[in-house]
Structures are given as structure tokens and as C-alpha cells.
Design a protein that fits this description.
The chain folds into 2 domains: 108 residues, P-loop containing nucleotide triphosphate hydrolases (Rossmann fold), CATH 3.40.50.300; 83 residues, 3-Layer(aba) Sandwich (Rossmann fold), CATH 3.40.50.300. Helix content is 52%, strand content 16%. The chain is built from 9 helices and 8 strands. The strands form 2 sheets. It has a 5-stranded parallel sheet with strand order 2-6-1-7-8, with helices on both faces. Strands 3-4-5 form a 3-stranded antiparallel sheet, covered by helices on one side. Strand 4 and strand 5 form a beta hairpin. Helix 1 crosses helix 9, helix 3 packs parallel to helix 5 and helix 4 packs parallel to helix 8. Bound molecules: 2'-deoxycytidine-5'-monophosphate. The site of 2'-deoxycytidine-5'-monophosphate has 16 residues, from helix 2, helix 4 and helix 8. 2'-deoxycytidine-5'-monophosphate binds next to helix 2, helix 4 and helix 8.
Length: 209
Amino acid sequence: MIVAIDGPAGAGKSTVASRLAERLAYRYLDTGAMYRALTWLAMTRDIDLGAGGKLGALAEENPITLDEGRVWIDDTDVTAAIRGSRIDRVVPVVARHPEVRAVMRARQRELAEVGDAVIEGRDIGTVVCPGADVKIYLNADREIRAKRRLAERPEIGADALATDLRLRDQSDAERMMPAEDAIQIDTTDLDVDDVVSRIEQLVKSQQPA
Ligand code: DC
């Protein structure tokens, strides 16, 4: 079974998707972490972030591994390094290139083909796995999304973070459309566990008896 969880930054995707994967004993695939890892490598190697072809080739030559919550690229564990505010700001620039997206999409599909996974991203239900068994689109008011981000990145400050979030929303917007058959959940006033339980029920109702 493939469960696709899409939505904007701060909607609760990571917490919900990882907890759901744990409950179902499915793999958890964080596709945002893949774009972040590539961004980290490009910055480390000083590659022009406007050069889509070069970045696509870099992605092709350096497959990303997601393993038990750890993220690897170029034989380096980048799990912590990719969560900095610098990567937050730059990753949409890298993720925008069609050459990058093509390589990522292929790799994500390869990972999905193994089966039983909760896959988190922006375009999973629409592009990467349009045939996913359960498609969820999480959203929340921007104010609450900014608050959640602030809890993760207290060093940035509320104003800068709100601006960052708005810019990221704009830049991610073209990839943030919910799939037509996605179930939309507004997490603004919901508890994580309630959201997880609701999706778990949906998954169980799809499983063969
Ligand atoms: O979910 P996140 O903040 O870790 O995502 C990082 C960036 O990658 C964000 O700018 C959106 C982009 N992304 C994407 O374009 N497609 C995906 N499937 C996942 C993330």
C-alpha cells in the first residue's frame, strides 16, 4: 500500500507521516529531505543553483538514501545539516528545475515500488504516485504553520520566519495542488494523533479483509 501525504510547509506532514508509518509498520519516505540533501551537496560543491542541467546531473550521480530516518548523499550523513535555515531558503530554487525533478521523481518511484510506504512531499499524489492507494492533502492556516516552524527553528525569529514561509509558499505553489482524489485535512485545530488515527482508519478501510 502506498499512502501519499502532501501539503505546504508547516502543515504537519512530517510528524503525521512518520507517526503513521510507525503505526502501520510501513517505510517512511520524506521526499523533501531528498531535495534538501541535493541542495546541501550543490552548496558544498559551490555549484551554480541556477544551472538546472548541472544540478540534474549531480542528482543522477549521487543517489540519495533514506535509511531509518537518516538521510545520506555522497557517503555523508546529512540528516542534521539539511535542517538549517540556509537550506530552507535555498531548497525551492533547486527544487524548481525540471531536470532535478525528473531525477527525483524516478528515484522516488523506485523507492515506492518496494511497496508499503508512507510518502511525504508536495507532488506525490499528483505526479510521483498518482495511483497511490490513499492520498491525503494536509493544510493549516499560515499563522499556525509559521508557529510550528518557529518551534523547529527558534533561532530565526518570528518575522523572518513568516516572510520565509510566505516566499516558500509562493515558490512551491505550482507543485502544491491537491490531487483531485485527495482527502483534504485542515490540521489547524487538530491534534497530531487525531490526524494520524483518521488516516490510519482510511488505510485500514482500503486494505483487503
Ligand atoms: O517538505 P520540506 O520543507 O522538507 O521540502 C523541502 C523543499 O522541497 C520545499 O521547498 C518543497 C520541495 N519539495 C518538492 O518540490 N517536492 C516534493 N515532493 C517534496 C519537497
